[in-house]
């Protein structure tokens, strides 16, 4: 299988890589880079455990070929924390006891980030709709929804960030 | 008012940072030097066939392949991936008729996904490419999807050890007439004014834990076989693997990894035998074996589906007289857990209501559907679906309110629980029913929805349940716990019971800290897998009730030793001492005190004073220890209330609200307890409304994916209310009973009964899908659908 030379900007760091053209972004993150915070749940885009941000858009990394990601900015759940300091979304998942087995959690947190970037003050209905592609089998979603609500309330510099995000969407 | 300061709080989970950042290491996340990759070649074409030719030669030559293994290249010892045989006495084992009928690689395919051979390669991709080059020829055999089919006299026998393909029935020697219960059921039924009876079908529900099964195994140079696995029960898997590979237990080590959800799927073994067989073929190299989701679906056991016949008799004043039932489950391909669920379904039945006469028969028949085994609830949702619907039908006939009838006739304190002779030490089911009814506005809604005629009709229903806290007295209930007190007065609790994600390790740490009198942050809890002392694992809702009691006992042992030394130092009798914030003091004079650290430090760094030649303090590191056997069983109770809206044109059932009010004794960590009840609702709603693995006529799965197998998603979930009824149990640690499984059980009956209230129709087959609802509506001539169909 041929390789492709690509550059990925993952969690603020540049990675120059040769990737087999048939490898998914999930496989490259996990197997080639050892970034196992992004989870394999189904491999077919049905469960959301492998959700990452690609230039602020949440995607299922199991469905994206790594070779098509050249030059992209990738953010995983680990990218939100800084030396063990959780960001406001992770902290909200902690505070609301929204984490049980934890396998869906990285994907849930990434999906929450993408939701709040677009819609900083989502209704409960909007939150539930946004999380439809992320399966959790432990919580019944009750505490996850509460965590997303708390994350929205506690987002740092929320109004400023929200305006910027809205402008970005408008453009 | 409770005096505790740590128990009863929603202490922060111990694993939250690891999980929020994704740093928690599940088995698939672990990379080891020199690692090779395994792939099990499975039969996907047939659910029942004999292998007539297996040619591995082309696969062996495939690039990157290290070894290929067929049935002849691994141990021919058979095994049983369940651990039931280890948890019963030899006498009971013989009585139950447990057998070992599984092969690492088989030549008789009994379900779609059965293992044929294995590939070990330098990469996962190389292993997959080689797998495609394996040549297998099959002789197809007749496929049996139901007990009715496989019990036919001319059916192919799954194993010579179980004639007629009956894997299990309640043994005559233990259950006269092969039935659980007592009293004269036939005579009591004769006396009944009202008899209700039906045949129910319960579905093959899948656990769908988010982490697919993955393993690493390695045979090291010292001849020790190590397996990294997310099994719920590391110690019993160690024993199982040692037996299978004929190794002393000291040469089998299980490393317990973080578990991405269990729900029963990881009870016992799944692919540990294949992973270890591969590792033994390449000594010195770790072999990683990961399963795809669709593969996981096939090879891990599901809930037991089957036919459940039930009949109950009452006097016209509502007095229950008799219950007669028979659950014939479709066991799937192998024996594992054939005895367990067939028994427990009847046990929960017997534990619920005061029927003076009860006769329950449980049988398991081999079929060519995939495996069945443990699934959260373990026979209980099946019983709930049948029993609770019949109770509501009977209530309608005698004119009783379903809540009031249940309050009057459920079993309670002093009555036999699910096992005769083991009585309920506590029961707050009345309070569950009262508070649940108030929360859903039961009385008003029962009246309001009584006579509806519109297209969309609402209903409210309730159901109750009893479960278990550990498996005493049926199964072994043994846990070893060691508490090591460090010289700086911090503690390490060592314990081999896994946390599957429910937060049990956090709650156990709370119990340890509370008992020791240490701050929460000064206690560590470690699960080193099989290197810890004996434990039977996380199952039967036992981790807090039994494991917590063991942790408490081990901590009390450590505390007793601390107090003995403090007593010596303070010259105060030990029974007059207390501990707070790591300071031991005389109850009568708190100023007379000693820091725990001065005791522990002197015990570890025990010097002889060179000036006096005398030792300083008492010698020795303090360790608390217990080899704990549960003295009793304190089952939890629960009541669920559901409000539904049924669309009579589409058959769709929307659950608007679900209230789970549970008698859990005491919540060690309330947020975690709520989490169990909330998550249970999602799985219970799936059982009753949407979840079933379907097979085609040849036994091939039709919906082994998250798109085609419908679980309740975030937008499908109703408004949820959980009510923790705290009525301290006299036996459980700090009054706690279990909560791990119970939350999913009674939502099943509550939803079915709410549909009954809305439509006046009961549905005998779960899940109650829109197709079945429409069919029921049309048969009954209700509502708009039929009229509209005619008009068209």
UniProtKB/TrEMBL annotation, chain A:
What are the entry keywords? 2Fe-2S, Iron, Iron-sulfur, Metal-binding, Oxidoreductase
Source organism's superkingdom? Answer: Bacteria
Q: Where is the 2Fe-2S ferredoxin-type domain?
A: 4-80
User: Which PROSITE patterns does the entry mention?
Assistant: 2FE2S_FER_1, 2FE2S_FER_2
Signal peptide from the UniProt entry: none
- A Pfam family per the record: Fer2
The UniProt entry, under Gene3D superfamilies, shows:
3.10.20.30, [2Fe-2S]-binding domain
Keyword DNA damage in annotation? no
Name of the protein described by the UniProt record: 2Fe-2S iron-sulfur cluster binding domain-containing protein
From the broadest rank down, the organism's phylogenetic lineage runs: Bacteria, Pseudomonadati, Pseudomonadota, Betaproteobacteria, Rhodocyclales
From TrEMBL, chain B:
The alphabetical list of record keywords is: Molybdenum, Oxidoreductase
Task: Identify the InterPro entries for this entry.
Answer: Ald_Oxase/Xan_DH_a/b (IPR000674), Ald_Oxase/Xan_DH_a/b_sf (IPR036856), Ald_Oxase/xanthine_DH-like (IPR016208), AldOxase/xan_DH_MoCoBD1 (IPR008274), AldOxase/xan_DH_MoCoBD2 (IPR046867), AldOxase/xan_DH_Mopterin-bd_sf (IPR037165)
The protein's superkingdom reads Bacteria
Task: Report domain Aldehyde oxidase/xanthine dehydrogenase a/b hammerhead positions.
Answer: 21-142
Q: What PANTHER family does this protein map onto?
A: ALDEHYDE OXIDASE 1-RELATED (PTHR11908:SF132), XANTHINE DEHYDROGENASE (PTHR11908)
- Name of the protein: Molybdopterin-dependent oxidoreductase
> Which species is listed as the source?
Aromatoleum buckelii
């Amino acid at each position: 299988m041929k390789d492709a030379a690509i550059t990925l900007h993952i969690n603020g760091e540049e990675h120059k890589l040769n990737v087999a053209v048939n490898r998914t972004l999930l496989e490259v993150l996990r197997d080639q880079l050892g970034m196992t915070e992004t989870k394999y749940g189904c491999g077919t885009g049905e469960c959301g455990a492998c959700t990452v941000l690609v230039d602020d858009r949440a995607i299922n990394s199991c469905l994206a070929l790594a070779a098509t990601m050249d030059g992209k900015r990738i953010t995983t759940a680990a990218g939100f924390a800084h030396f063990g300091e959780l960001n406001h979304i992770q902290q909200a998942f902690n505070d609301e006891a929204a984490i049980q087995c934890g396998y869906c959690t990285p994907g849930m947190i990434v999906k929450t980030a993408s939701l709040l970037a677009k819609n900083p003050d989502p209704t409960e209905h909007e939150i539930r709709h946004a999380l439809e592609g992320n399966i959790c089998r432990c919580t019944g979603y009750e505490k996850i929804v509460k965590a997303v609500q708390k994350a929205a309330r506690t987002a740092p510099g929320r109004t400023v960030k929200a305006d910027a995000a809205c402008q970005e969407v408008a453009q | 008012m409770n005096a505790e300061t740590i128990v009863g709080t929603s202490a922060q989970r111990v694993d939250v940072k690891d999980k929020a950042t994704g740093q928690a290491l599940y088995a698939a996340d672990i990379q080891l030097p020199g690692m090779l990759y395994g792939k099990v070649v499975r039969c996907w074409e047939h659910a029942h066939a004999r292998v007539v030719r297996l040619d591995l030669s082309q696969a062996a030559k495939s690039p990157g392949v290290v070894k290929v293994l067929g049935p002849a290249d691994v141990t021919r010892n058979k095994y049983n991936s369940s651990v039931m045989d280890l948890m019963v006495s030899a006498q009971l084992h013989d009585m139950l008729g447990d057998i070992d009928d599984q092969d690492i690689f088989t030549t008789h395919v009994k379900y779609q996904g059965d293992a044929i051979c294995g590939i070990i390669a330098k990469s996962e991709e190389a292993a997959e490419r080689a797998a495609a080059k394996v040549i297998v020829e099959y002789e197809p055999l007749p496929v049996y999807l139901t007990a009715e089919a496989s019990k036919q006299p001319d059916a192919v026998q799954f194993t010579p050890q179980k004639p007629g393909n009956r894997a299990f029935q309640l043994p005559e020697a233990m259950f006269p007439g092969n039935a659980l219960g007592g009293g004269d059921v036939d005579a009591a039924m004769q006396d009944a004014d009202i008899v209700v009876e039906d045949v129910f079908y319960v579905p093959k529900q899948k656990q769908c834990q988010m982490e697919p099964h993955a393993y690493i195994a390695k045979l090291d140079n010292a001849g020790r076989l190590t397996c990294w696995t997310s099994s719920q029960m590391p110690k019993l898997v160690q024993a199982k693997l040692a037996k299978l590979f004929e190794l002393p237990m000291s040469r089998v080590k299980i490393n317990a990894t973080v578990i991405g959800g269990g729900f029963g799927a990881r009870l016992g073994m799944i692919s540990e035998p294949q992973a270890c067989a591969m590792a033994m073929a390449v000594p010195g190299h770790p072999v990683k074996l990961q399963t795809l989701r669709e593969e996981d679906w096939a090879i891990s056991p599901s809930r037991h589906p089957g036919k459940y016949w039930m009949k109950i008799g009452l006097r016209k004043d509502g007095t229950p007289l008799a219950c007669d039932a028979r659950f014939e489950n479709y066991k799937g391909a192998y024996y594992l857990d054939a005895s367990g669920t067939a028994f427990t379904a009847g046990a929960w039945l017997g534990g619920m209501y005061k029927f003076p006469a009860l006769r329950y028969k449980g049988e398991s028949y081999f079929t060519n559907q995939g495996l069945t085994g443990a699934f959260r609830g373990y026979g209980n949702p099946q019983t709930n679906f049948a029993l609770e619907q019949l109770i509501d039908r009977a209530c309608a006939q005698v004119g009783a309110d379903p809540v009031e009838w249940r309050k009057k006739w459920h079993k309670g304190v002093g009555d036999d629980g699910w096992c005769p002779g083991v009585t309920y030490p506590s029961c707050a089911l009345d309070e569950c029913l009262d508070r649940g009814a108030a929360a859903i506005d039961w009385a008003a809604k029962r009246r309001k929805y009584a006579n509806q005629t519109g297209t969309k009709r609402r209903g409210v229903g309730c159901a109750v349940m009893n479960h278990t806290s550990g498996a005493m007295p049926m199964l072994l209930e043994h846990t070893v716990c060691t508490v090591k007190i460090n010289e700086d007065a911090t503690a390490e609790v060592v314990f081999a019971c896994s946390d599957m994600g429910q937060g049990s390790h956090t709650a156990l740490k709370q119990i340890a800290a509370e008992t020791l009198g240490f701050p929460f942050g000064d206690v560590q809890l470690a699960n080193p897998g099989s290197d810890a002392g004996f434990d039977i694992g996380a199952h039967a809702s036992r981790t807090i009730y039994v494991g917590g009691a063991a942790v408490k006992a081990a901590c009390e042992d450590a505390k007793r030793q601390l107090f003995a030394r403090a007593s010596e130092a303070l010259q105060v009798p030990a029974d007059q001492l207390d501990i707070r914030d790591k300071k031991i003091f005389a109850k009568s004079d708190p100023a007379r005190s000693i820091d725990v650290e001065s005791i522990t430090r002197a015990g570890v760094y025990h010097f002889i004073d060179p000036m006096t030649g005398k030792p300083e303090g008492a010698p020795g590191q303090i360790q608390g220890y217990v080899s704990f056997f549960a003295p009793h069983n304190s089952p939890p109770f629960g009541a669920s209330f559901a409000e539904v809206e049924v669309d009579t044109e589409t058959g769709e059932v929307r659950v608007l609200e679900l209230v789970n009010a549970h008698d859990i004794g005491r919540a060690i960590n309330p947020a975690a307890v709520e989490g169990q009840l909330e998550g249970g609702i999602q799985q219970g709603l799936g059982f009753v409304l949407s979840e079933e693995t379907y097979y085609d006529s040849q036994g091939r799965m039709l919906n082994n994916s998250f798109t085609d197998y419908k679980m309740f998603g975030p937008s499908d979930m109703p408004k949820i209310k959980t009510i923790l009824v705290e009525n301290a149990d006299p036996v459980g640690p700090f009054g706690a009973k279990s909560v791990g499984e119970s939350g999913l059980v009674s939502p099943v009956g509550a939803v079915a009964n709410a549909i009954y209230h809305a439509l006046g129709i009961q549905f005998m087959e779960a899940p109650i899908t829109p197709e079945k609802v429409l069919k029921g509506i049309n048969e009954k001539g209700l509502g708009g659908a039929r009229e509209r169909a005619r008009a068209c």
